[in-house]
């Protein structure tokens, strides 16, 4: 760079820089390097238009120098937002100097942005092979390319090769963890995310992925604890609030399956606190409202004296007016709790009205509410009517799902035995290995007084899953009804299989 232009660029006083350039350009008016350096100063001063004029002039004066074309590409990409022109500028720079790392990598990024990903990949592949100084950046881009193409093994190899060149690149470890996670290698993904967190403990996304992976693997207590670590970094991080709420809900379900009702209620109270905060921050997330509904309805089989979780006051907006006082006292009874669940599912459906699964959940919640109401009361009939309407809507949206037909049979059993029988049989036709539908069909036959058909249905359910306790309970009830001597042994066997409320 002539006439000490390189020294001019190091001067902090802009006025002195311009004085130096003015002197240089008067002495050498045709110096392309001086014009380019002047453009660099304009660029550093964030005067993009003036810099662009200088870069364009320098490119015309010296068309064999790649640097002006690189900065013209920067201008088109960052200022003018014209990626096609930017890619042409970078391509010209690469044509002049094939191993220009900045031009090649920027060209790759620009081509990827306009959909020419295969060309971008070939450029990165060439740079990784021929330019050792820029190989890491090229390999990372190659890994991202393969990950987008769902070729996770190749993506992992690229990220590993990049880490061989720089083992302390936290973002590369994060990319490797994502690739492992996409491939289903959960343990390896956690190790990669842990390494990224060791390099930077404030990488909240890596912390979140570690917690999410633990939740996926069923390490519920560890997942809840790690979500708490995420919330220590950012207390308003909504994905972590949802994740911890989901982990605590799963802990509650595990406690219920073991008969620890009090512990389950405690977990539900904690989950509701997290999910209410998430709903407050993101009221447009239907998944949050569904989870709140799940937390409320899952306690429907727990004793009314025990099923009194703490409910945040913020959730009172979804309660009917008759239950407002109980909410403000911080605990609610079972009826109020399931009413909250119904309204939360309704809010989720308001956001996502075409979800068959949400209609299914709403039907189940109304059915549970009806069973808690006084037998034959107006409230019970109204709840059962709403449940039937909701499950019919679910079946109409997704008639090929066996669980919806099974739920239709359960909901309609008290209204129409023929409809319930049809629904259970339809569920079995869609999924022949459907132990729950076979058991429900057997229960329907037993309640109708047809012990022979009930025994056959329970027998088929037992053949599908010998550990399914409900089928054994059905056989025990049949044996008890006909006075068989083995009825007590059958009940005893049910208790050996699992804990059951019945």
Overall geometric form: elongated
Strand content: under 5%
**Helix and strand composition category:** mainly alpha
- Total number of helices: 27
Extract low-pLDDT stretches: 1-13, 319-329
Q: Largest sheet at a glance?
A: none
Mean pLDDT: 85
Helix content: over 70%
Q: Output the radius of gyration.
A: 33 Å
Give, in order, the helices and strands: HHHHHHHHHHHHHHHHHHHHHHHHHHH
Number of strands: 0
The N- to C-terminal Cα distance equals: 89 Å
Topology:
Elements: H1 5-9, H2 14-27, H3 32-44, H4 48-61, H5 66-79, H6 83-96, H7 101-113, H8 117-130, H9 135-148, H10 152-165, H11 170-183, H12 186-199, H13 204-216, H14 220-233, H15 238-257, H16 261-281, H17 286-297, H18 324-328, H19 334-351, H20 356-372, H21 378-397, H22 402-412, H23 417-430, H24 435-447, H25 451-464, H26 469-482, H27 487-497
Helix pairs in contact: 2-3, 3-4, 4-5, 5-6, 5-7, 6-7, 7-8, 8-9, 9-10, 9-11, 10-11, 11-12, 12-13, 13-14, 13-15, 14-15, 15-16, 15-17, 16-17, 17-19, 17-20, 19-20, 20-21, 21-22, 22-23, 22-24, 23-24, 24-25, 24-26, 25-26, 26-27
């Amino acid at each position: 760079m002539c006439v000490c232009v390189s020294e001019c660029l190091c001067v902090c006083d802009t006025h002195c820089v311009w004085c130096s350039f003015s002197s240089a350009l008067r002495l050498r008016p045709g110096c392309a390097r001086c014009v380019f350096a002047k453009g660099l100063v304009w660029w550093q001063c964030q005067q993009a238009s003036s810099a662009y004029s200088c870069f364009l002039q320098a490119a015309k004066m010296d068309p064999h120098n790649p640097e002006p074309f690189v900065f013209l590409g920067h201008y088109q990409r960052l200022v003018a937002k014209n990626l096609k022109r930017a890619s042409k500028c970078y391509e010209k720079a690469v044509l002049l100097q094939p191993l220009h790392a900045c031009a090649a990598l920027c060209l790759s990024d620009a081509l990827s942005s306009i959909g020419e990903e295969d060309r971008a990949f070939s450029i990165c592949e060439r740079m990784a092979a021929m330019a050792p100084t820029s190989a890491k950046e090229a390999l990372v881009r190659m890994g991202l390319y393969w990950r987008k193409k769902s070729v996770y093994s190749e993506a992992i190899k690229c990220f590993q090769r990049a880490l061989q060149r720089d083992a302390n690149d936290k973002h590369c470890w994060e990319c490797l963890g994502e690739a492992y996670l996409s491939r289903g290698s959960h343990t390896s993904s956690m190790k990669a995310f842990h390494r990224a967190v060791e390099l930077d403990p404030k990488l909240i996304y890596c912390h979140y992925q570690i917690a999410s992976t633990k939740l996926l693997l069923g390490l519920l207590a560890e997942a809840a604890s790690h979500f708490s670590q995420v919330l220590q970094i950012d207390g308003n991080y909504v994905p972590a609030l949802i994740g911890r709420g989901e982990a605590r809900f799963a802990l509650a379900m595990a406690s219920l399956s073991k008969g620890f009702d009090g512990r389950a209620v405690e977990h539900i109270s904690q989950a509701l606190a997290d999910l209410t905060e998430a709903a407050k921050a993101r009221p447009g997330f239907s998944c949050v409202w569904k989870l709140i509904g799940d937390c409320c309805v899952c306690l429907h089989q727990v004793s009314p004296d025990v099923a009194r979780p703490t409910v945040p006051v913020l959730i009172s907006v979804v309660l009917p007016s008759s239950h407002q006082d109980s909410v403000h006292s911080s605990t609610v009874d079972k009826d109020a709790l399931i009413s909250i669940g119904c309204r939360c599912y309704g809010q989720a459906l308001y956001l996502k009205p075409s979800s068959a699964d949400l209609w299914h959940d709403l039907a189940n919640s109304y059915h549970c509410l009806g069973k808690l109401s006084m037998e034959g009361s107006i409230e019970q009939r109204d709840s059962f009517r709403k449940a039937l309407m909701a499950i019919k809507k679910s079946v109409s949206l997704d008639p090929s799902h066996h669980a919806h037909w099974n739920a239709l049979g359960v909901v309609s059993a008290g209204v129409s035995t023929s409809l319930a029988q049809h629904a259970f049989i339809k569920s079995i036709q869609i999924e022949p290995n459907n132990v729950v539908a076979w058991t429900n069909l057997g229960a329907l036959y037993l309640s109708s007084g047809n012990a022979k058909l009930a025994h056959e249905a329970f027998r088929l359910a037992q053949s599908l899953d010998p550990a399914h306790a409900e089928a054994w309970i059905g056989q025990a009830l049949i044996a008890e009804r006909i006075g068989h001597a083995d009825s007590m042994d059958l009940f005893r066997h049910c208790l050996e299989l699992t804990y059951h409320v019945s």
